[in-house]
Amino acid sequence: MLAVAREKLPDGTPLYLADMSSFNLGMTFDVIVCVYHGINHLLDFSDWEGFFDCAYRHLNYGGLLIFDVITMHSLEMMASSPQTAQQFADNYLLIRVRDSGRAIFDWDIEVFELQPSGKYILIPEVIRTASFPREMIRKAVDERFSDVSTIASDGSVVANNDTLSRIWFVCTKNGTSWYDSGVGASCSSAGQVSPSQPQLAAGDPG
Ligand SMILES: C[S@@+](CC[C@H](N)C(=O)[O-])C[C@H]1O[C@@H](n2cnc3c(N)ncnc32)[C@H](O)[C@@H]1O
User: How far is the CA of 202 from the centre of ligand 1 (A)?
Assistant: First the structure.
């Protein structure tokens, strides 16, 4: 992924390899964007909380965290559907999504890639994803960020719709939430958690 990004980005663009649920870049940003459901690759909700903590710490006041989520509804629908097949160039992609329980969905992916010899080779991969109820995600970001909007892919505001396939979260750090006096206040020294907020220490990357 980083090699592909390196090819596409201007020379000198900094790239970092780190765990998104626990990182400290030692700097802050105006906007943090995590799209194409990157967060669904974290299988435990404590890691989602770790990501929210890290993103919060790395934002300037007034800054935005924007991320999208594949919903549980969407993964459940995919898991109840038959295998799909797509052709790209002379190659074929087969995907089946399996419900592996405890909110984890495994994507069984098979690529049949045409070789110069005219034969196909099979490239199999299993990608593990997880999703959690909208209200659970909403509560976790509400605990940290002062202003949160949930938006559907068509731009409409999400209220209580649990049939969407993807939800976008736009979270503002404006420095007025209770969270700001605890973990968020330690932006420049990630890992220091106020003893007055011990319940957040479990999500703290340290
Ligand atoms: C669906 S892709 C997201 C693509 C990317 N956001 C983009 O815009 O092209 C998910 C990516 O998250 C990476 N990933 C999975 N777990 C991760 C973790 N704990 N920390 C950082 N990246 C992770 C995967 O390797 C994969 O490259």
Answer: 23
Q: Read off the pLDDT of residues 38-70 as tens digits, 9 standing for 90 and up.
A: 999 999 999 999 999 999 999 999 999 999 999
Is the CB of 36 inside a 6 Å radius of any atom of ligand 1?
yes
Torsion of CA 13, 67, 55, 48, to 10 degrees: -130
Which domains can be identified in the chain, with CATH numbers?
A: 28-71+131-203 (3.40.50.150), 80-128 (2.20.25)
The response to whether residue 20 sits with its C-beta less than 6 Å from ligand 1 reads yes
Our answer on whether the CB atom of 130 is closer than 6 Å to any ligand 1 atom is no
- In whole angstroms, how far apart are CA 4 and each of 1, 15, 19, 106? 5, 11, 18, 24
Rounded CA separation 149/168 (Å): 8
85 vs 47: CA distance, rounded Å = 32
Stretch 109-125: mean pLDDT: 97
Select the more confidently predicted residue: 193 or 103: 103
